[in-house]
Amino acid sequence: MPPAHERFSAIWAYPWDLIAEGLDASLGRIAEIGLQGISLATSYHAGMLLLPHNPRQKVRFLEDGALYFRPRLGRFDGLVIQPRFSALLDERDLLAEICQAAERHGLEVVSWTVCTHNSYQGERHPDKAIQNAFGDPLIYGLCPSHPAVQDYLQALLEELSAYPLRTLQLESYGFLGFPHGYHHEKINLPLGPWGHALMGLCFCPACERAAREEGVDLLGARRAARGALETLFEGEARFPKAFSTDLLVNEMPVLGPYLQMRETIETRLVLRLAEAASVPLNLLEIGAGMVRPLAAHVPEVTACAYRVAPQEVAEATRAARAMLESGARLSIGLEACPHLSPTEENLVAKVRAAWEAGADSLYFYNYGLMPVKSLEWLRAALA
């Protein structure tokens, strides 16, 4: 367990909840609970949220793919992908205001930055979205192999680096899977984990170029994925009950080099973003093969242990610590809302379990989504 003075605890938060309560009221409450920081959504995706203690609204439909800060004038000029700015900005810079208010209350600010998960941009640039084995664009996920996507993300991180932030916590910085909670999804076939994995593989033109450069048989990988899916659609597929990436490659060896290429693409993108940003990166989840090549460039990784049982939290924390080997700071994300943390005793036990299993920092989900009683339970857990 890290010494108390080295620990850091923060709560994921949305700007609209902080504004609705008043910045000093909301941030003062967060500090008084015993937290040391907030991870603030600065670039976020679509959604519908139930907000139990928001005094202005209980249900909010989000602006898809919006930014909640103001970059320097002209930084995105000439880029293919242009940012969408939230209506909440309204001639103000929310991130600057929140950073100033957080400092008044002794809180650090982390930028919770959603990267490729962006239906707004995917609708406008379907050629830059993930394309499945049938050529259908999955518009909720931009493809990280596309140069225009990389340029956009680099500009995003460069601009966020101008703020007094502890880290840039990157979510969905790689390939998204299938499905992904899109509005009114209807999937009336039992695809299972095998079908979901195969449907989420990307075969877009940018991935084709990358495959040629890496000497990867993308056509063979696409043919294998498409054939397996067509068999699955007709209920004739015979996959093992268990699923893992290793089992997938065993069943379809042609996918091995292709999956390695995807991990290489994600690693190179993170290296580019780390070089562009002057604020340290904090990756939300990481592939095991990316740990070593990114060790010198990514000082912190957050692994989410959204579990009910404290023992499961401990096991997930130990597994993440073992994967990271040494060097990187390990943060553990805990779900503090009642559906996964149903009692004060449960949340207290999970916090203790994460610390004792090797966590350096804890992040709690989510300020606006939890009821007031859960905030009081969090106070007890941190004490």
What does this structure look like?
- With 383 residues, this protein is of the alpha/beta class.
- It has a single domain, classed as Glycosidases (TIM Barrel, Alpha-Beta Barrel).
- It is 40% helix and 17% strand.
- The chain is built from 14 helices and 14 strands.
- It has helices spanning 15-21, 23-33, 94-104, 119-124, 147-160, 192-199, 205-214, 218-233, 245-251, 255-276, 291-294, 310-324, 344-356, 372-382, and strands at 8-13, 37-44, 48-50, 59-61, 66-67, 84-85, 108-114, 129-131, 137-142, 168-171, 281-284, 300-304, 329-335, 361-365.
- The protein has an eight-stranded parallel beta barrel with strand order 1-2-7-10-11-12-13-14, surrounded by four helices. A two-stranded antiparallel ribbon has the order 3-4.
- Strand 8 (129-131) and strand 9 (137-142) form a beta hairpin.
- Helix 7 crosses helix 10 (255-276).
- The longest helix has 22 residues, at 255-276.
- The two termini are 16 Å apart.
Topology overview:
Blueprint: E1 8-13, H1 15-21, H2 23-33, E2 37-44, E3 48-50, E4 59-61, E5 66-67, E6 84-85, H3 94-104, E7 108-114, H4 119-124, E8 129-131, E9 137-142, H5 147-160, E10 168-171, H6 192-199, H7 205-214, H8 218-233, H9 245-251, H10 255-276, E11 281-284, H11 291-294, E12 300-304, H12 310-324, E13 329-335, H13 344-356, E14 361-365, H14 372-382
Parallel strand pairs: 1-2, 1-14, 2-7, 5-6, 7-10, 10-11, 11-12, 12-13, 13-14
Antiparallel strand pairs: 2-5, 3-4, 8-9
Helix pairs in contact: 1-2, 2-3, 5-10, 7-10, 12-13, 13-14
